Amino acid sequence: MPQRTMDQQVRTDAAAGAFDDWGLSTVIDENLDAPVIPRDQFERLHDLAGLDAAWPIGNAGLLHVYGYLLSTVDTPYGSKGARWLDGTLARTLGLPADAFLPDGPGIGTLLSRVTAAVLPRLAEPPVDALAVLDQQSMDGRATVRTVVVGGAHAAALLYGIAEGGRMRAVTAFPLSAAPDSFLRALAEQQPRLRYNAATSTLAPRSPLASSLRTQ
């Protein structure tokens, strides 16, 4: 995405209050133990959005959507920005392959299009979801939700956190497959914050209480 276009979209999202639909995230990727974008880009994005942030914790929508498009780091799963560019995630969510292109044909900014596809599925998981996993923070103030949608051969994982009774998105990414073995492993993994998420009181990777529900 050209820098000017990204700046315009970030300002549009900020004016609409769109970043409030997203939770908190660290810019330090847990698979890399390194930032996905440098500090100057982190601070510039948050300044554009008019959001207070203390490195390395910032707004998840700003970092996982726009920040990932800026990221040049190599990960075990490929480019961070690929989820918005290659069409796999969009198709898995029942959208045209170009729905998440920064200058795609959809109405609104990239963030608004991603939010519209992800947040309702987190707030009210579809009845045909492959998995729904809820975990609580130890103090009971936050509920962390994982939803897997799609099919066994093309799926997507959505992740969000509810604090104060409001669900907010943290991230979404495609899965190469979601067989029964993956879904069992998801339910059996040690409860903790994942996918670089943070909360207003919990640092990334903080332990969580046992699962409340699975589907």
From TrEMBL:
- The superkingdom listed in its UniProt entry is Bacteria
Q: What protein name applies here?
A: Amino acid deaminase
Which source organism?
Answer: Lacisediminihabitans profunda
